[in-house]
Amino acid sequence: MPLELCEIDPRRQVLGPGDKGFLISLTKSKWSKPAGAEIIKVFKMFAPKYYEYKCPEEAKNKKSSNDKDNCCGIQFIQRELVYNNCGFVASNLEDPAEFAHFVFAKISEQRFDAYKTSKAIRVMPVEAVCEAKARAVEAAILPSVLKKLGQTQDALRFSLIFRGHSTVNSLPQPEAKAVIRNCIWSVNPNCVQCIKYQDYAVLMHMLPPVFLVGVCKDFQRLGGYNTWTARQGPDLTDLGEDSEDEISDDPELEEDDEKKRKLRIKRKRRADKAGLKTLESSLKKSTEKTEQEEEHNDDDHDEDDQDHYEEHIDGNLKEENWDEPQDNDHSQH
What we know:
This protein is α+β, with helices and mostly antiparallel strands.
């Protein structure tokens, strides 16, 4: 599929509806503008490679013509935020999530020092910035959901992840998750919501009065799109047998209740795999065994005490039998 670019206003400085790009934050330190410049540098290093991947014929022609100045046409511009815990890099990429997946997949595979950042930077691809209201969120996320999850009826796994704790009265976090979850099931009812492992992660963030959202592929496998974690290589633990892809969803349950239900199923699976019928039966067996051992130890102690008591009585009787004649002899004298 060819590279798709959209219009971007380089003169606008403040983040607002219609923007696409990347929300940037630091994992273990406060946000600073140099971190934004550093991640833009990394993005620009990968931009020609991404262009070559998307448009191989055009990239080959431009290389032969020695046109190196802005050969790919991809732009990155920092936006101003009123919040001091994160930054935003706007881009003219129509699908910034696909570009982020390409970048972190390469970092995970190659692990070159040239891609290493001075600080651990988390990147959240933002495909839509909209007003923090349910209808606006539904309209903003639906095209991306159709493109990535609606092209097949396979049982794809997805997770709903909030990056941040901000909320607004017009759209609480549980309501935002419910809106997006219903959008996904409306285009592909076979999709399964998972707790940790997923094929696609729907990342959300609120910067009142706007709502940011992006649908990211292999989010957990690529270290949560973290520049340091991704360099450790892909995380393939979701390919294990104890994944959640076989646990069906219950649309009638709230999200917290649904998580608890799935965790109970996972615990029961582990118990069955270990040869135990239930965790309760395991605890019961352990308790009965402990009680039996305690009773056995008590019996041993009782026998020892009885032997000691009998020895003590016999000794006293012997002493009494030895003393009595001595008293009689003394009385005769």
